[in-house]
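hey can u run this one w/ calcium ion bound, need the C-alpha cells asap thx
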Amino acid sequence: MGNRSSLLLREEEIAQLQQDTGFTPNQIERLYSRFTSLDRGDCGTLSRDDFLRIPEIAINPLGERIVNSFFQGEVSDRVNFRQFLQVLSQFRPTKKNKENKNNARDHKLRFAFNMYDLDSDNMISKDELLAILHMMVGANISEDQLTSIAERTILEADEDGDQKISFEEFCKALQRTDVEQKMSIRFLN
Ligand code: CA
Ligand code: CA
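ok here u go:
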C-alpha cells in the first residue's frame, strides 16, 4: 500500500483485501472512505490520535486498549489501510453457518485475551484484571469490591492453581458466553 494520492481503491486491491479480511467489496469501500476521512494529513496511514477520533473508540472504556491493538507487531506508529482492515476484521460479526466460524471465534478470544494481558506475558494476572475493571467501571464500585471481583474471576477460571489465567483457561471460562456478540464493534453503521 504505502503512500497514495488517489482516494480510490483498485479492483485487484479490493479482491486481495477481501480475501485477507473477509469483508465484502462494499464494506471495504465504506471502510476505506472511513479510513480516508480519519486520515487528516492525507498520508495513507493513521496515527493514534486519528483513531481516538472514532466515536465508538472514544466512548469505549477499553478504547485505549483497542487502539493499542492496532499498533502491535510490525506496526510501529502509523497504521495503513490493510493493517486497519485486518484489525477491524477481528471485530466483524461472523455470519452463521460460515465454515471458518471456529477460526473467527479463536481470533476474537485471542484478541480479547491480549486486551487483558497488559504486559504481554501470555497470562492474565489479578493486577491486570483489576486494571481493566478500573477502566470499565470507573469510580462507581469500591476498591474492595473490585478486588473481590478480580479474585473471584481468577478463582473461577484458574484450573492449575497458579493464580493467573492462561489463554486456555480464558477460553474455557468464556466458552458459554457469546464472545462474538460482545466483541463486535459496529464500525459499519
Ligand atoms: Ca500478563
Ligand atoms: Ca492458571
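The first helix runs from residue 11 to 21. anyway lmk if its weird
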